[in-house]
Amino acid sequence: MKEQLKNIAALIPKIKEYDEDLEKQSLWWTVVAMVGKVNNQDMEPQLLDSIAETQEQFSKLKDTLIDSLVKRYVDKLSVEMALKSQALIEILNRNLFERTADVGFLAMDDEVISFMVEADFSENPQAAMRQNLVEYVQKYSVYDDVVLLTPSLDVAVRLKEDCDAASVVMTEEIKQALDSNDYVESDQPVSDLTFHDKPLTFYQKIVSNGQTVGLLCLCFKFEDEFERISNTLINDDCPITFILEGLDGHGIFSSKPEKISLASQAKIDCDKMKFLQLDREPTFVFTSVAKGYQGYKGLSWESKLMMPAKRALQNDTLESEIVLNDQSALFPHDLNELNLEINTALLIVILNGKIISLKNKVKAFLPVLDSFQEIGADIARIFLSSIEHIQQISYQTISTEVEISSRLSADIMDRNLYERANDSRWWALNRRIRTVLSNPLPTDQEKQEITELLKSINELYTVYTNIFVYDQAGEIVAMSADSPNLLGKRLIDLPEVRETLANRNSQHYAVSEFTKTPLYDNAETYIYHASVQGIESDSAVGGVGVVFDSTPEFKAILDDCLPKQINGERYENSFSTFVDRRGMIISITDNHLNLTVGDTLPVNADILGKENGSSGSENVLFDGVDFLAGYQVTKGYREYKVSDNYQNDVIALAFVPC
């Protein structure tokens, strides 16, 4: 470890400068001590021994200072790499968790089941089913193909019309899906089914009356999603390489494809950073695995980040102009104690020397002691400069952390709510719901059928507390939650319900304001709505509403992205929050200010007015405490809040005392 710190120190210009300055002082100390000893033979040996012992003490403290400086640099890198490495795998994991629900829902769609049961795969039925699949996939731009296979693996229909494959080969994963009631996820290519070298496919068998009638295959835009995530995490001129790797060491994707072969050389424990020689270049590597989201951890992948050490360590320009303050949470008290310790020891030697010199009338030794006093002043200056430098590094570390933290939480929020917009529109396409709502007077049995369907959907999509269906009058006729007091409730006064019932476009959705609602136990949340089109017409006969479980879901996002110390613990009095343009809190982690959802955050007005997509960090003052605040204004994900005419600006903020 000592040798590794030495190798890292050699790559940091500022540390080399401090080391050389301190080494010069040590050399000058040796010269002065030797001159004093040669020219003052009558001095007491005890004084000369004290000078030698103090120099030895100084050498040890010098090494401690240099090691501490190196450790601060390494910790700064480790914190950044840990955040980004974990984010890469967790964001992907959250996305794929949603896919596991999609494949389950679509496999129980009435029209899909009827199509497979009737087994008429001629041109017209195929075209009609393909159009149904197109309608679904238009809501979810994360899929590049959907394939329905017969139990014998003949192609019944697929989205890719330019593919003329009549059947696919049996694989272990396909067999597992046909033999199981659960979905199967696979990153293995299948001849005539997957058309990417590195695919990701979700399989779910299609069942009717207990009999397997087909297999649904959802083909995920795997590489596209990896690129989107890594681009979110890469700054301008970022030297980091992101790699997704299988546990067998095989690289799947890389943000810099030319580096992918190096990844297998860097086998390290997860949640650890290592300093390695890769292709004769000093490199920092950090590896993470998914911690899981609602129990889902996906396939056995690792997220690996690689950063060339020279670029990472030589970029030590300190842009902040903070004043050295021993009351700051970032002040390195341990090194300041070292500074006081060596100067106190040297001062004692000098005072004792002067007393002994005057007592023994050896005035010739006084200039030597004056030289030691100058050495002490120079050492104090170097230590003070290094302490200031360390505080600057700590400041930069926190600044980087809070900015990354806010950027990640905003991105995950957009991605999460993108799914909510899509879910509501998917379920509004369900033929059973459309058929029942097309009837002006649906029977109790029909309503119960929809209720059972909604309950089945809610079991797959666990981020909702309720999924409800309302008729053309805005009256709730069925819901997944056991809330009898809400059945029959009229929602026509809500603007988002009126907008939904007036809509004729299956791509459109409406969203409530983030406000208290009896549909969420009088707490604040977003409710997404989609219009249900009639069977015989394109006018709306009702709507589907989904009640997002915002309280735990948003808080979980913020908690997962909260800045952490190198030991994994949160910084004392740190917190993160989502606010709207007015500063109203949408969600917030535990905090010492006792702020809660619905309160107004006393944050700088200029932050609340930042443009969409803006990010950065600023100093703010809360309750007499200085904080570094990282901010990110949401910018949307894929088409969500980008090209779908929905606007809902949210600012993610992360605060750490400084």
Overall body shape: elongated
Average pLDDT confidence is 87
- Got a strand count? 22
Low-confidence stretches: none
Question: Radius of gyration over alpha carbons?
Answer: 33 Å
Portion of residues within helices? 40-55%
Helix and strand composition category = alpha+beta
Write the layout of secondary structure elements.
Blueprint lengths: L1 H8 L3 H27 L5 H63 L2 H9 L4 H17 L3 E7 L5 E4 L13 H8 L4 E3 L14 E8 L2 E10 L1 H12 L7 E6 L4 E4 L5 H4 L8 E7 L2 E8 L12 E8 H6 L18 H27 L6 H63 L2 H8 L5 H17 L3 E8 L4 E4 L15 H7 L8 E2 L3 E3 L5 E3 L1 E7 L6 E9 L1 H12 L13 E5 L5 E4 L16 H4 L6 E8 L2 E9 L17 E7 L1
Antiparallel strand pairs: 1-2, 1-5, 3-4, 4-5, 6-7, 6-10, 8-9, 9-10, 11-12, 11-17, 13-16, 14-15, 16-17, 18-19, 18-22, 20-21, 21-22
What does this structure look like?
- It is a single chain.
- The protein has 658 residues and is of the alpha+beta class.
- The chain is built from 16 helices and 22 strands.
- Among the domains are: 2-70 and 321-397, no CATH class; 420-547, Beta-Lactamase; 553-657, PAS domain (Beta-Lactamase), CATH 3.30.450.
- 44% of the residues lie in helices and 20% in strands.
- Helix 10 (333-359) packs antiparallel against helix 11 (366-428).
- The protein starts with a helix and ends with a strand.
- The mean pLDDT is 87.
